[in-house]
Design brief:
Blueprint: H1 10-40, H2 43-64, H3 67-77, H4 82-117, H5 121-149, H6 153-176, H7 184-203, H8 216-239, H9 243-248, H10 254-291, H11 294-322, H12 334-353, H13 361-364, H14 368-420, H15 426-429
Helix pairs in contact: 1-2, 1-6, 1-10, 2-4, 2-5, 2-8, 3-4, 3-5, 3-8, 3-10, 4-5, 4-8, 5-7, 6-7, 8-14, 10-11, 10-12, 11-12, 12-14
């Protein structure tokens, strides 16, 4: 079995299964956390938790600075050159830790003003407790990027699972000890502290394989350059499926946003279904793109598209089967009002779902700037369509705009591979007949 065929063999199935297991654990933990905090501490505490979490997630993108993407790409690229691979891994770990510490200090010093801006001292106190976790998060994210590049996906999945379980355990401990809600912020720091040692043992960035390769300083420069260009993609990718909700807030009342957000919550979950496959596929794309065989890349891409679409349809079918039965548990016709929105969004996402596992192909080709440009274009189209349709059609307009933008994102990705990777026909048609 060749390296490029590898992800479609038993390893691919096993890696994907482990990462779907981690995804299910993370999704389930998120639901449990929100319900438990609301039930035990009250809605005000739930608001504190989610505001701390929002600040943490945004800050974490800056803390890791795209270095994890660079680490994953180059570790996969130099998998057959142990000395170079280890130098790249060591430099990425140093860069991640350094930037993470700087951002952690900045957020820690800004915790008070953040609390004032949120008009909640508890949020500020929680952010201060979460800030040290940003330094550890940046290092851990890079170490997990290295595992991803080495296709050690079971270890990757286990560490993902341990992280969310640690957060849940700390919240449960907070309830047990009757601690105040601002201590939720410490959950993020504790979780990262728990996984950093196992990750360091797994990766051992300090080791030297195949001789002492020189050039750590040059690899630091390369990672920082790659990360700076990839950073916008990280921020934009996190925002892409939330543009509609943000735009709705400008035009409709809170009740309408609530109905739409209920459907959007399920779409965010469905979007993660092909994202799991993307994580497994990314290091293989590095080899395929680097090998220059566009016919092989096209054939591989289409096989992954079929797999992703099949898994998505199964997951979406299950969601739509269960969705109507949720009505008795939610008041004021929420489920009935959200159902048409969910149908429209799912239809658009079904087209994009086939392409999502491949939508970081420019990143894997070593073109992070163009990857960010592509994601920026997708965001701009999404926002423009929402701006055009929401004022006239409300939440139905937002659903249609977002569904169309999903479909167009598939076309822009196909065009990008055609133009920027020199692959006539793109991922959808490239390599046919060869």
């Amino acid at each position: 079995m060749t390296e490029t065929a590898g992800p479609l063999d038993r390893k691919f199935a096993g890696d994907t299964a482990w990462n779907y297991g981690a995804f299910a654990l993370m999704a389930g933990t998120g639901v449990i956390l929100n319900f438990f905090i609301a039930a035990h501490f009250g809605t005000a505490a739930l608001g504190v938790f989610n505001q701390i979490y929002a600040v943490y997630i945004v800050s974490a993108q800056l803390a890791v600075f795209g270095i994890h993407d660079s680490a994953q790409k180059y570790v996969a690229q130099f998998g057959d050159d142990p000395a170079t691979r280890q130098t790249a891994a060591r430099a990425a770990s140093l860069a991640g830790a350094g930037i993470g510490i700087a951002v952690a200090l900045a957020i820690g010093l800004s915790a008070g003003p953040i609390g004032e801006l949120a008009e909640s001292p508890a949020v500020g106190q929680g952010v201060a407790l979460a800030a040290p976790g940003l330094a550890l998060f940046a290092l851990n994210k890079v170490l997990m990027g290295i595992l991803n590049g080495e296709r050690r996906m079971r270890a990757f999945a286990v560490m993902q699972g341990v992280r969310v379980l640690a957060i849940l355990a700390f919240v449960l401990l907070t309830a047990r000890m009757a601690w105040p809600p601002h201590l939720f912020g410490a959950a993020f720091t504790v979780a990262e502290a728990i996984i950093v040692v196992p990750l360091l043992v797994l990766v051992r960035p300090w080791r030297r394989d195949g001789g002492a390769a020189e050039g750590t300083r040059e690899w630091l420069r390369r990672h920082l350059d790659f990360g700076a260009k990839a950073l916008p993609n990280g921020f934009l990718a996190e925002s892409y499926i939330r543009v509609d909700v943000l735009m709705l807030a400008l035009f409709v009342d809170d009740a309408a946003v609530g109905v739409y957000s209920f459907a959007a919550m399920f779409i965010e979950g469905l979007y993660q279904v092909p994202v799991v496959i993307r994580t497994v596929v990314n290091p293989v794309l590095v080899k395929l793109v680097g090998g220059g065989d566009r016919a092989a890349l096209g054939r591989f891409g289409r096989r992954i598209m079929v797999i992703s679409l099949a898994v998505f349809i199964a997951a979406a079918g299950a969601v739509h089967l269960v969705f109507p039965h949720l009505a008795p548990y939610f008041p004021n016709g929420l489920v009935a009002g959200a159902a048409p929105v969910l149908v429209t969004l799912t239809a658009g996402l079904a087209i994009y779902a086939a392409f999502v596992p491949l939508d970081f192909v420019l990143l894997q080709a070593g073109r992070p700037g163009r990857q960010s440009l592509l994601m920026g274009l997708n965001i701009a189209v999404n926002a423009a369509l929402n701006l055009a349709l929401i004022p006239r059609y409300g939440i139905e307009g937002a659903a249609l705009a977002t569904a169309v933008s999903f479909a167009l994102s598939a076309l822009t990705l196909n065009a990008a591979t055609w133009i920027w990777l020199g692959m006539p026909g793109g991922l959808l048609f490239g390599g046919r007949g060869r």
